[in-house]
Write a structure and sequence with these properties.
The complex is a heterodimer of chains A (about 625) and B (about 290). Chain A has about 625 residues and is an alpha/beta fold. Helices cover about 35% and strands about 25% of the residues of chain A. Chain A is built from 23 helices and 22 strands. In chain A, strand 4 and strand 5 form a beta hairpin. In chain A, helix 7 runs parallel beside helix 8. Chain B has about 290 residues and is mostly helical. Chain B has one domain: MetI-like fold (Orthogonal Bundle). Chain B is elongated, with a radius of gyration of 22 Å. The two termini of chain B are about 25 Å apart. Classes of the chains: A alpha/beta (about 625), B mainly alpha (about 290). The interface between A and B is medium-sized, with 32 and 19 residues.
């Protein structure tokens, strides 16, 4: 079998302002057979997207392709004229971008955008194209395939939009499809649906594809072959099953190990935790937050954080986890409930709190790019809290800045630089160092690693665990990544659409039973083995049927997605908070006690089946 | 001219480096703009010292005389030396316009920052007042001001400043509102910083470049407004003359192609084009960041 796509000695460079070419891809060689899925994997800046784009003969502005060849189906794309390239793009090679929300035009119906490339390349008539699109919608398991095309992009969910973009890419039956981080912006539970749909379509149509990602576990599900990139050079090119079991290159090994967060719980903090009687450092009691029109984003939240302990909050986007942190620091005023620091109630708004209270609770923003003023130097940024809270001046302050920098493992020389001259990981360290400068009792970390590469993120977590031991600070850790949170937190809270659905010790999240939503989250985290996607228990398609719900009753928030819901109970009354045998508190009708739950299931199975028939 | 020779200013910690990296002019057109503006600024200061004749004296018997070694720009409709008159007009045109622009931008930016930082009803009051002002056509407003208070330099400055303040306010307010929502401002709020600190240390430096661009643009508008006023005979009063009044005085020479009418017009053109080129290059620099 001949190679369908062949890339030889591809070199891409960036031209700087001074007119000097800086190479960013140094001679990449790889090839694809028909029906093969190849993954390009690497950290940000490794050149994976640059290589993927050059497969369409394209280089981003500022970059240009210096040398090499890209043969797709026998033609070298790099020698084609712009007008001939335009015929290839969208027809022979198509592209699925990372953010579907940004790639769709909000003012045009979905159908018109999906069939646009077929219309431009005149592969078929409008009627045929629409018929084909509906077939693709069906294959991609989209709801209501006949009519979804009549809607506008804002009327469908993010995961659906991503699948619609796949339909857009496949409408012209391209020879090669490029998927550029298509699931990175999605929640894990949505990601799994999209991955399944992609995999099905790719297998059924025998599509040749290049899958760009930074997530090795996702790639393991999709790709036949993996190319590992670092700094624009290919480190390793092997079959997926070989790479996962026996990585040849050192860098691949480090990637693999960074994917598995180690448990960093230590006995010191456990001892402090055991002091149940003492007042918790920070307590949230019966918190409720309403935005306008009475929409509740958080309700009935209780939380205790002890000195030196780490509490994790997880949930998907829209679950209210950031709102929780923002109401603790006083950026969002709760409509009900109170926050106590060492037993003392805090003012609802940050402006009503004393300087000392503000100092003790520090908030680290998710995105270090916007959390650091681009015009201040690192020294300005770190020195301000020192003089503001501790009245430090002159040499003493400079020494303390140097101390803080070494605490977050950064060199002194960085003090004179501005944030724009730093890397993402360095910025996040400065962001953390600024919080430490206040010498707080508790630091709230809002997704501090989510914008970072796996290896860099792992280093930040390592650093935070280290600081906790040294300084005995507490953390409230907000994340969407359950595997990371359960590994580093003493206590974990699971939020779902504003409700606390489960709460328990960190290690208790390693063994079932769980709240059905927690179960779904755990099952949705990709594992680093082939075939996981097919075998995992996370599913959304077959839910037990229930009778229609009355509109004005408050019920379990997870009802419409729950795979173990019980007709006549879950759709009638709101569940209680129950304590499981392992100590976790859940918000569910099931109690999951070993014997009882089995009995319940035996009893309930026929009922739900009856309902579904 | 170290501002544009250092094209690659790395992370030098000195104040000078940060200044030049913030203001350096990269493109050729920006350089031309800088030279033109710099030239006129210098002339506005030392111009009167260079003038070969007293600007208001009748030095020649020919009216609308041609360019010669004796009279570089020819003579005007009364036989005065045109070169001296253009030099004498420079401080009027640039000085009055600069004073009015500074006043307009200061008032606009300050009220914009106050509106962005203050509670909603203060914001509403300031914004609606400025909206009312912006709805008055600037030339009409200037005519009314001159008709009621007479034409004098302070009145001209005040008129131009009031007419162009609302635009500056709108831009400053919208910039400040955007910066106010950024995370680093939230961080400062959570630290417990006072409003003046947030405005001057966190917000203002980050809207400096667009405000500077706006300043340049507003300067051009004011030069044109003042020239138009002078052209109508309502600006600087004879025998003193700014460039606009020089054009009007000598309009009779247009049919004979006298340099007396062309030269002040060229002066206005070079100044406004120069400012435009300069602010364009500053603006495009800010886009790159």
């Amino acid at each position: 079998m001949t190679e369908l796509v062949k890339v030889c000695g591809l070199q891409v460079a960036v031209r700087t302002g001074a007119g000097v070419d800086v190479p960013i891809v140094h001679g990449a060689d790889f090839s694809l057979h028909k029906g093969e899925v190849l993954a390009l994997i690497g950290e940000s800046g490794s050149g994976k997207t640059t290589i993927a784009l050059s497969l369409m003969g394209y280089a981003r502005s500022g970059c240009h392709i210096v040398g090499g060849s890209v043969h797709v189906d026998g033609t070298d794309l790099l020698t084609l004229s712009p007008s001939k390239l335009a015929k290839v793009r969208g027809r022979t090679v198509s592209y699925i971008a990372q953010s579907a929300a940004a790639a769709f035009n909000p003012a045009i119906t979905i159908m018109n955008q999906v069939i646009e490339s077929a219309m431009i390349h005149k592969t078929c008539s409008r009627r045929e194209a629409e018929k084909k699109a509906i077939g693709l919608f069906r294959e991609l398991a989209l709801p209501d395939p006949e009519h979804i095309g009549e809607r506008y992009p804002h009327q469908v969910s993010g995961g659906q939009l991503q699948r619609l973009m796949a339909a857009m890419a496949l409408i012209t039956d391209p020879i090669l499809v490029i998927l550029d981080e298509p699931t990175t912006a999605l929640d894990v539970t949505t990601q799994i649906e999209v991955l399944r749909a992609f995999k099905k379509v790719v297998r059924e149509r025998n599509t040749t594809a290049v899958y760009v990602s930074h997530d090795l576990a996702v790639v393991a599900q999709m790709a036949d072959r993996i190319v590992v990139l670092k700094n624009g050079e290919i480190q390793e090119n092997s079959l997926t099953k070989d790479l996962l079991i026996e990585p040849k290159h050192e860098y691949t090994k480090s990637l693999l190990s960074a994917m598995k967060p180690e448990s960093r719980q230590d006995t010191v903090s456990q001892n402090i935790m055991d002091l149940e009687t003492s007042t918790p450092l920070l307590e949230v009691r019966n918190l409720e937050v309403c935005f306008e029109k009475g929409k509740r984003v958080l309700q009935d939240i209780d939380l205790k954080i002890r000195r030196g302990s780490t509490v994790g909050v997880i949930g998907e986007s829209g679950s209210g986890k950031t709102t929780l942190a923002r109401s603790i620091v006083g950026l969002v005023e709760p409509s009900l409930g109170n926050i106590y620091l060492d037993g003392e109630a805090l003012n609802a708004s940050a402006s009503g709190r004393t300087r000392e209270q503000l100092r003790r609770v520090q908030y680290v923003f998710q995105n270090a790019d916007t959390a650091l003023n681009p015009l201040h130097t690192v020294e300005d940024i770190l020195a301000r809290p020192l003089s503001f809270y501790h009245g430090m001046k002159g040499q003493k302050r400079r020494d303390r800045v140097a101390e803080l920098l070494s605490l977050v493992h950064l060199p002194d020389s960085i003090a004179k630089r501005r944030p724009t001259e730093l890397s993402g990981g360095q910025k996040q360290r400065i962001n953390l160092a600024r919080a430490l400068a206040a010498e707080p009792d508790i630091i709230l970390c809002d997704e501090v690693t989510s914008a970072l590469d796996t290896v860099v993120g792992a280093a930040i977590l390592e650093l935070m665990a280290d600081l906790r031991k040294k300084l005995n600070v507490s953390y409230l850790f907000i994340s969407h990544d359950i595997s990371m949170v359960q590994a580093i937190c003493d206590e974990v809270v699971v939020l779902y659409s504003g409700f606390k659905v489960e709460q328990g010790a960190g290690e208790s999240f390693q063994r079932p039973p769980f709240h059905p939503y927690t179960q779904l989250l755990i099952d949705s985290v990709p594992e680093m083995k082939q075939g996981w996607l097919e075998s995992t228990g996370a599913n959304h398609e077959t839910l037990p049927k229930i009778a229609p719900i009355k509109a004005d009753v408050v019920l379990c928030p997870f009802l419409d997605r729950c795979s173990v819901r019980i007709d006549g109970q879950c759709n009638q009354v709101i569940p209680d908070r129950k304590k499981l045998e392992k100590g976790n508190q859940i918000f569910c009708h099931h109690s999951f006690s070993n014997k009882k739950s089995q009995a319940l299931e035996v009893e309930e199975q026929p009922i739900s089946q009856l309902q579904s028939v | 001219m170290n501002t544009h020779t250092s094209s690659v200013t790395a992370a030098e910690p000195t104040q000078k480096a940060s200044f030049s990296s913030r203001f350096h002019v990269r493109s050729i057109s920006g350089l031309i703009g800088l030279i033109l503006v710099g030239f006129w600024l210098v002339i506005s200061v030392i111009g009167p010292m260079l003038s070969p004749y007293p600007p208001n004296d009748f030095v020649s018997n020919t009216v609308f005389g041609p360019m010669s070694m004796k009279h570089f720009f020819g003579t005007d409709y009364l036989g005065r030396d045109m070169f001296s008159r253009v030099l004498a007009g420079t401080p009027y045109t640039i000085g009055v316009a600069l004073a009015a622009t500074v006043a307009a931008c200061l008032a606009g930016v300050i009220s914009g920052l106050v509106a962005a930082a203050a509670t909603s009803w203060v914001d509403m009051t300031i914004s609606r007042t400025q909206d009312a002002l912006i709805s008055i056509p600037s030339k009409m407003f200037a005519l009314i001001m001159v008709a009621s208070f007479g034409s004098s330099v302070p009145i001209l400055i005040l008129t131009a400043a009031i007419a162009y303040m609302p635009g500056s306010f709108r831009i400053a307010r919208s910039l400040a509102v955007n910066v106010m929502t950024l995370d680093y401002v939230q961080v400062a709020r959570l630290r417990g910083e006072s409003m003046p600190y947030i405005i001057f240390k966190e917000v203002l430096p980050n809207m400096f470049r667009p405000v500077l661009t706006d300043f340049g643009l507003r300067f051009v508008f004011i030069v044109l407004l003042l020239s138009a006023m002078s052209f109508l005979g309502l600006g600087i009063q004879p025998p003193e003359a700014d460039w606009g009044s020089l054009v009007r005085e000598n309009i009779g020479g247009l049919s004979s192609g006298a340099p007396a009418v062309i030269m002040p017009a060229i002066a206005i053109a070079t100044l406004t084009i120069g400012v435009n080129l300069l602010i364009d290059s500053i603006g495009s620099k800010s886009v790159q960041h």
